[in-house]
Write a structure and sequence with these properties.
heterodimer, A: mainly beta, seven-stranded mixed β-sheet, 11 strands, B: six-stranded mixed β-sheet
């Protein structure tokens, strides 16, 4: 079974803080993704990575950065958290030759 | 530009009846489609998929239909059960590398006992 884990289920931060969200997958998947989910907007892709140290912008990268130093780990960084970044953040991974993505449980981030 | 659309934000169905969730797409490069199910406070879980070379794929109570000419797909759940109550997302892939998916907005399905 594919397992994708995220470092926190719930997180509360203050405006201006630097926030790190971590994601680890145990299936040796090449591709990893970060999404945010907001009501009525579905899942929107923030960043993705198809290999170690490689990253690509998704549809809404502004205000975020990512890091992938090891194949199994993909981190999302909010350089200076803002209230409009309050959301559910979801990490996913997939094998390079398939499109099926496997998701972690999500991190509910609240920025006050 | 919403390339994948789920126009019904919610659907309510009686237990035992059929649930039909719809999804439309605009990008003709999409060639692989997936449905995910999401419970509150959990990540989405993969449900069923279909390639554009097929028009139907079945897995137990779940069937996905694809109409390429209309750029429309639907998920049928028969019979519906209360445990099916969740948010359902359709997603599409193709035309880009690295397995990038484009998701719809989601439909909240409620199955009443």
């Amino acid at each position: 079974d594919v397992k994708v884990t995220q470092s926190s289920r719930y997180l509360v931060k203050r405006t201006g803080e630097k926030v790190f969200l971590e994601c680890v997958q145990d299936m040796d998947h090449e591709n990893m993704f970060w999404y945010r989910q907001d009501p009525g907007l579905g899942l929107r892709l923030i960043y993705f990575s198809y290999d170690v140290k490689m990253k690509e912008k998704g549809d809404i990268p502004e205000g975020y950065s990512v890091s992938r130093e090891k194949k199994e780990r993909f981190s999302l960084i909010l350089e200076s958290a803002s209230t409009n970044q309050t959301s559910m953040y979801l990490c996913a991974s997939s094998h390079e030759i398939t499109d099926t993505q496997y998701f972690g449980p999500g991190t509910r981030l609240t920025v006050l | 530009d919403q390339q994948v659309k789920q126009n019904s934000p919610s659907l309510s169905v009686q237990e035992g009846r059929i649930s039909i969730l719809n999804c439309d797409y605009t990008n003709s490069m999409f060639d692989y489609f997936l449905w995910y199910k999401k419970y509150p406070a959990e990540g989405p879980t993969f449900l069923i998929s279909i390639s554009s070379i097929k028009d139907k794929n079945e897995d137990g109570r779940f069937t996905v239909f694809l109409n390429k000419s209309a750029k429309h797909l639907s998920l049928h759940i028969v019979p519906s059960q209360p445990g099916d109550s969740a948010v359902y997302f359709c997603a599409a892939a193709g035309g880009t590398s690295y397995g990038k998916l484009t998701f719809g907005q989601g439909t909240i399905l409620t199955v009443h006992p």
